[in-house]
Design goal:
Two copies of one chain form a homodimer.
Chain A (H helix, E strand, L loop, with lengths): L5 E4 L8 H12 L4 E5 L1 H10 L10 E5 L20 H10 L5 E4 L3 H12 L9 E8 L2 E6 L9 H19 L5 E5 L10 H11 L5 E6 L1 H6 L4 E3 L2 H25 L4 H20 L7 E5 L5 E4 L5 H16 L2 H22 L1
Parallel strand pairs in A: 1-2, 1-4, 2-3, 4-11, 6-9, 7-8, 7-9
Antiparallel strand pairs in A: 5-6, 5-10, 10-11
Helix pairs in contact in A: 1-10, 3-4, 5-6, 5-11, 8-9
């Protein structure tokens, strides 16, 4: 049976539709079928300009959408703007014409659409956006990085369960350790949310709770998963990305001043480049929104063709790995176990 | 008139009293008189072992304290443990025998002591710990980085006023811009605390409010001051420090593999070292606690002699610059202005 295509919102984002078309062609070349959703005339013209879909590649289809949600629009607009590319793309997934949704457009609108069209996995109060941090000993799963600015302890508990499943599936961690992001390692340390969440995680079945971790543990890779509210997680993620950029900028500048440094820089360039690539946020292309009923991926508005290509490959892996089905199963078990556990308290 | 000494808790911290004695000698050599507070016999013996106070240096005095608050103790213990080194040191400042308090011990205990013994500047609800981030275009003032895990909008407003004064005094910024750390630049973006604080900062007199900033803006140096709650600020600070450490570790490793990289690394070493030094958190040695009635500095528990020396110099600069007096004046003005402004609403 041929694979279903990944539905790509080809209009939302700074470099669309060009980045979508180029990214889709690159993905199709590695065997990933794509459904481009947006202004049909522009998308077909764009494909034609590039000589059409390569002969040996997977198919690229175009689905027309007359409208597009722009960065300055409200996320809630997706309710009434049914012709918007993000909604038409989500409808295609819901109707079985595509297997996953990828968008580089308005993050809030993509989340709102996924909630509206796909609905939440049973037992999940709020979906969470997951980021992969390239830590010292391998990838660290950080969530939530922006879907929920204000959280309750029960939400963080569900993030822990979803993060645990995700680390096993996406990063091959057998029995991933879960850290709760805080300011001090002792159980009593942290803000009110963390102090209330700590005992809850300690008695959640099916996860391996390590305890509190601090900001420094994120890149040190102290735990496989780090759970936090979407405000702190988003600040942390953008800080981590921004710091890497500033730091490599300084190194570049330092290696341009003086003959000795220049020569050293030239010789060390491939090694330094490899370190910089390790921190490149476009490696994954997009971040999964966990907790909705179909695979959903949210990318940077500034995504280029490479990020689109990576996001499509990432989405395809999630579909093949049965991410949503496994999440649904684990969340159901964990919540049932906990309910019976609580009854025995 | 000779300068008053800086009171140093010589017992609290991982490497005490050795780091305190060595740091005090280094500071005394550059003309900073120090009052070492702790176990008199050990401190005098330590000084004697090092050949006593150098002849051409500023004086180092010893004040006995029979007790010490350890990392595992409760911050609140300072109330009844009046013989603890941190309390004896604070009492010396309060009694006019020293001009500022420096501690590398239990941060919570240092804060509690400063609040108890010094009291808050009139109009300041809660003191804040300030960190200096080595950003792209110079130092960025970040507060609060850990004194208050849960904040209210009025507290963030006071942090903004104190941060503005601090950036002018410590970093020579004429009319510093203030950013509110959030997840999205638009005024409506962020968690509940940020959404309520934004309009408050916009109408606070005496500060130049830029609006929301994101995690990436911290090292990019988008604003001179970044205001946030102590939970987010502490996570951000420790992440920034930890990331720099991990990144330079990777670079070191990369420059050890292969002849070409090794040679390049050798040549580029001084340039790379200069970049690493730019990010060294021990440059300042300690972080000021703003909002209490005497200059108070809190350092890392892991502080070495260099950090102690830097902290003492930093404290001396704050005393000379009249940090506490200026803060008190500005907070009073800002709050009076705002009260009359509100009355006119």
């Amino acid at each position: 049976m041929p694979h279903l295509p990944i539905a790509l919102d080809a209009m939302g984002g700074d470099h669309m539709p060009d980045a979508a078309i180029d990214g889709a062609i690159a993905a199709a070349r590695r065997g990933i079928p794509v459904l481009l959703v947006g202004d049909e005339a522009r998308l077909q013209a764009g494909l034609a300009e590039r000589g059409g879909v390569p002969r040996d590649a997977a198919p690229i289809d175009v689905l027309h959408a007359a409208d597009v949600i722009r960065m300055e629009d409200h996320a809630g607009d997706v309710r009434r703007r049914r012709e918007a590319s993000i909604r038409v793309a989500a409808d295609a997934v819901k109707d079985g014409a595509a297997s996953a949704l990828v968008s580089m457009g308005h993050s809030g609108a993509t989340m709102a659409t996924a909630l509206l069209v796909f609905g939440r996995i049973s037992g999940v109060e709020r979906p969470a956006i997951v980021a992969t941090i390239p830590a010292k000993n391998g990838p660290v799963t950080l969530l939530d990085v922006g879907a929920n600015a204000d959280c309750k302890p029960g939400m963080l508990q569900q993030f822990a369960v979803m993060g645990s499943v995700y680390a096993r599936l996406a990063h091959d961690r057998d029995d991933p350790t879960i850290g709760l992001l805080s300011i001090g390692e002792e159980p009593g340390k942290g803000n009110e949310l963390v102090r209330e969440t700590h005992p809850l995680l300690a008695r959640t079945p099916g996860i391996r709770f390590h305890g509190n971790v601090e900001g420094r543990d994120l890149l040190a890779g102290t735990t496989d998963v780090v759970v936090t509210d979407g405000f702190t997680g988003n600040v942390a993620l953008k800080l981590a990305e921004g710091e890497a950029r500033v730091l490599f900028g300084w190194i570049r500048d330092a290696l341009r001043s003086g003959m000795r440094s220049k020569l050293g820089g030239l010789l060390a360039k491939p090694a330094l480049k490899a370190v910089a690539n390790r921190l490149d946020p476009s490696t994954y292309g997009a971040q999964p929104l966990l907790g909705v009923n179909h695979p959903t991926f949210i990318g940077h508005g500034s995504a280029d063709a490479r990020a689109v290509d990576n996001a499509l490959a990432f989405a395809r892996d999630a579909v093949d790995g049965g991410l949503v089905e496994r999440l649904a199963r684990e969340v159901a078990t964990s919540i049932t176990d906990q309910a019976s556990g609580d009854a025995n308290d």
